[in-house]
Design a protein that fits this description.
heterodimer, A: alpha/beta, seven-stranded mixed β-sheet, six-stranded mixed β-sheet, B: alpha+beta, seven-stranded antiparallel β-sheet
Chain lengths: 346, 538
């Protein structure tokens, strides 16, 4: 639903600064979109996941990391012009100032801080509050309106400590040395975070990776994120080749014929959805790893409590439950019902 | 508790038998006494609590969080224990996490009024996996897809012994099984199975494969008798210790004082527990009134008198007969039963037969009387010793062909476990004509197996595509004279039932075939089932 962007008397309504349009969140005075889901003239992109970062815009502003990720995914000509914007750097146009602040979601992920006539709107994109060895932590920014995701906006989503989940995986490798542990992880961010967490957990052997990850893993290396020894998950025709090893692949490959090359694989999936057993069962996952790059319920509500913004806007996910929480805690909230963002694989 | 929780979590998603064995064996190896023993007890079903009532748990959580948010959470997750485990608010400064043994001990000694606050205190102290395990344990349904036998096998693997060695002593062991683990870890002798009144592992029969087995077996080698439709029991009186054991070694004495009181011999009989009136076998439904009860009152015993029909003799006074051939045991049994003259113990008669064809004819068309209530026939090699387990060759069961009817799918319910995303439990009905001559469907049973995984997908799709109404996990599907899905249902028998609107209840119903081709209006009528009942239990 597009709501009119207008002034009421002398009071500036936040909708004058940022409002939902069919293509995504739009800033009328600055004339740009944030994470538009269709090609536009000017876009600010929060992070490199394909539902937020699309090809074909005339001009894109994003962190250098996000621009590099887009170039890897879509080719160098992904946009007419690319404007790198480092965390903390501000660009201004027609009195609208745009600054990017770390969102802690994946490499390069940013919150978009939009300031105009004393009004601050923070569009957080996707975010999390946990430590992640592959990206800087979320930085809280005081604001009038906080635009939040709600992927895991239900009190059942309480992500456990990621290091503990990694220990679960390593313990299983120890218990089943004759089997290959096949970990499904989203190609951008999750896969590299799992690898980095495995290194922190003491796994220094070669980690075998699906071909779909090669270029992004290389890019992480270029940005100084050490992933240790990696090798393609190929076998010489003998299934025992990768017994006792850890293989990382996109979630979709888990139920694919591709897995037949491995020795009696233990299907693991690193995702916040794994918190609910029925989800793990539906996907035939034997070893769910509850590791997410999205904020869980406590992080979502904790962030709202910490920022105490004048208003909360909820972009996508389980809006109704988070809106209910806001209601119970006296925070004005509304669901924007934006379409086009998918987080099923997280 | 944490290690046990992790084990249950892992087991609940592990399909492979060997993987399950590894998980349980490693757990038993790494967990100290007495926690591992209590865990083994819960995995083998030897430890059950009805301590936590779902309603009380629900009330506790709704007092701690917004009921609307809880309701949405429950809708999303679909399982009360799991939902509560996840949404239970963290309680900083809560007590230390309890060990499994502490939970067990506390519940044993707690007054009823204290139980709820104990449980809430533990929920405060545990993490979500721990809460889930605790709630599963307390509400009495682990449902992690592990049989008692597999749990014992894992213990056997731990000690490098044969599982039969554990089964033989299982009845003398009591949780937390410290003596068992001491033996398995080579720290002590094997616990002695030689307690008077003990259970002897039962000999079971293989299912007969008509196409293969009849051609290669010589009828002269086998004795035949009816396979009575009750529950298999072992009646023991040894040095004054009287016990009635189920075939898995569960002591069911307390539920059958009438039978226990009639054990007037010294020895061990293997037989079928049945409800019998005036020497005549009653249908299984009558026995069902007596099952799954801890005790029986005089009224129940008078209405449903239980008795034993003897198959075999394992111990005659002090003499162990198990190594004797069936022919000799049978002669001893006949003399033993005759001597006992107990009013509640009779003999399962042998059925002489000349050829497989003759036996097949007998099985297909049992004579009037008790044989109508048999499930089929048993074949026992005359020279077979009494061997625990299910050895291949000496004994066969040859069940009667099931009854078949065509029914119409009416309701479907979401399944459990692997099937939680599927509508896999089906309620079906047949046509009933009312006084005005109108035909409507009346439910006659529910089945959740008999179909392949491929068929399940198709059934699930049918349910989703033709849903009329939803009630929680249940959907009603379109089923009328002009449209509906016909299911060919196989079942073993039929009983009158006051609990079912149709007045009939089926035994072991399962989906035999999906009749995508058959119009709903051509499904069977209730009168067909009533006629089966009139013919004697179906």
């Amino acid at each position: 639903m597009t709501k009119p962007c207008a002034y009421i008397g002398d009071v500036i309504r936040p909708e004058s600064l940022v409002c939902p349009r069919p293509a995504g969140l739009y800033c009328p005075p600055g004339d740009f979109y944030i994470d538009p889901t269709r090609p536009v003239a000017r876009a600010v992109v929060t992070h490199g996941h394909s539902d937020h970062a699309r090809a074909g815009h005339q001009a894109v502003a994003a962190t250098p990391e996000t621009l590099a990720i887009m170039a890897v995914r879509y080719g160098e000509g992904f946009a007419g012009a690319a404007r790198p914007l480092a965390y903390g750097e501000t660009i201004a146009r027609d009195g609208v100032e745009v600054t990017l602040a770390p969102a802690g979601h994946v490499l390069g992920s940013a919150q978009v801080v939009v300031r105009w006539r004393g009004l601050t709107v923070v569009v957080s994109g996707d975010y999390k509050r946990r430590r992640d060895p592959t990206c800087p932590p979320f930085e809280p920014v005081a604001c009038d309106v906080f635009v939040t995701e709600a992927t895991f906006g239900l009190p059942v989503f309480r992500h456990p400590d990621a290091a503990g989940e990694i220990r679960k995986l390593l313990r299983s490798v120890e218990q089943f040395p004759e089997r290959t542990h096949l970990v499904g992880a989203y190609a951008l961010g999750k896969a590299q975070r799992i690898i980095a967490l495995l290194r922190e957990g003491g796994w220094d052997r070669t980690i075998f990776v699906h071909g779909a990850f090669d270029r992004l893993n290389g890019l992480y290396g270029e940005f100084g994120i050490e992933l240790g020894p990696l090798a393609p998950a190929t076998t010489e025709g003998d299934k025992r080749d990768l017994a006792g090893e850890i293989v990382i692949a996109p979630p979709g490959a888990l139920a694919d014929r591709w897995t037949r090359r491995f020795a009696d694989p233990v299907g693991a999936l690193a995702s916040g959805w794994m918190r609910v057993r029925a989800r793990a069962r539906q996907r035939g996952v034997e070893l769910p790893l509850v590791i997410s790059d999205h904020a869980d319920w406590d992080e979502l509500t904790g962030t709202l409590a910490e920022l105490a913004p004048g208003e909360v806007w909820i972009t996508h996910g389980r809006e109704e439950a988070l809106a209910r929480w806001c209601d119970l805690h006296g925070l004005p909230a509304r669901a924007l019902a934006l379409v086009g963002y998918e987080d099923e694989e997280d | 508790m944490r290690a046990f929780a992790r084990l249950l979590d892992r087991l609940s998603l592990t399909q492979g038998r060997n993987a399950k064995l590894t998980l349980v064996r490693d757990f038993l190896k790494e967990t100290p006494d007495p926690d591992r023993g209590w865990a083994l007890a819960s995995l083998t079903g030897a430890l059950t609590f009805g301590a936590a009532k779902p309603a009380a748990i629900r009330k506790a959580i709704e007092g701690r969080m917004d009921p609307v948010l809880f309701g949405w959470s429950y809708d999303f997750v679909g399982d009360l224990a799991e939902t509560v485990a996840l949404v239970w608010p963290a309680s900083p400064g809560a007590n230390r996490e309890p060990e499994l043994s502490e939970v067990v001990e506390a519940l044993r000694t707690a007054a009823r009024a204290e139980v709820q606050s104990l449980i809430e205190g533990w929920l405060d102290a545990l993490d979500p996996d721990g809460r889930w395990a605790l709630l599963k344990l307390l509400t009495g349904g682990l449902r992690v897809g592990l049989s008692a036998r597999l749990a014992k096998q894992a213990a056997a693997d731990l000690g490098g012994v044969d599982v039969a060695e554990i089964e033989e002593v299982w009845h003398v062991l009591r949780p937390p099984y410290e003596d068992l683990f001491a033996w398995l870890e080579g720290r002590s002798e094997r616990p002695s199975p030689d307690a008077p009144g003990r259970f002897r592992p039962v000999m079971l029969a293989q299912a007969l494969d008509e196409a293969v087995d009849l051609a290669r077996l010589d009828p002269a080698d086998y004795a035949a008798e009816w396979k009575w439709d009750g529950i298999r029991v072992q009646a023991v009186c040894e040095r004054g210790e009287i016990r009635l054991w189920s075939r898995t070694g569960e002591d069911v004495s307390a539920a059958f004082p009438d039978v226990v009181g009639a054990i007037n011999f010294e020895g061990v009989i293997d037989g079928e527990l049945l409800v019998m009136r005036g020497g005549r076998v009653a249908p299984f439904g009558d026995l069902q009134q007596r099952l799954n009860r801890k005790t029986a009152d005089a009224k129940l015993m008078a209405g449903y008198p239980a008795a034993i029909r003897a198959y075999d003799l394992l111990l005659d006074a002090e003499e162990d007969l198990r190594q004797l051939p069936f022919r000799e045991r049978r002669a001893r049994l006949e003399a033993f039963v005759a001597k006992s003259r107990s009013p509640r113990i009779d003999l399962s008669p042998l059925q002489p037969f000349a050829s497989w064809d003759a036996l097949a004819a007998l099985r297909a068309d049992p004579p009037a009387g008790d044989a109508q209530c048999a499930e089929g026939v048993m074949l026992k090699r005359w020279d077979s010793i009494y061997e625990a387990g299910r050895p291949k060759g000496p004994w066969f069961k040859w069940k009667r062909d099931p009854h078949l009817i065509d029914a119409v799918l009416m309701y479907a319910q979401r399944g459990h476990g692997k099937r939680s995303s599927f509508y896999s439990d089906y309620t079906f009905g047949v046509w009933r004509e009312d006084e005005a001559g109108q035909r409507s469907l009346t439910p006659v049973g529910k089945a959740y197996f008999g179909f392949t995984d491929e068929e399940l997908k198709l059934l699930d799709k049918f349910v989703r595509d033709h849903t009329v109404e939803r009630f929680g996990p249940v959907r009603s599907v379109r089923a009328d004279r002009d449209f509906g899905l016909v299911l060919e249902v196989a079942f073993e028998g039929l009983q009158r039932s006051t609990r079912h609107r149709s007045g009939v209840a089926m035994r072991f119903p399962r989906i035999n075939r999906i009749r995508w081709d058959k119009p709903a209006r051509e499904a069977d009528e209730l009168s067909t089932l009533e006629a089966m009942l009139a013919r004697g239990g179906g």
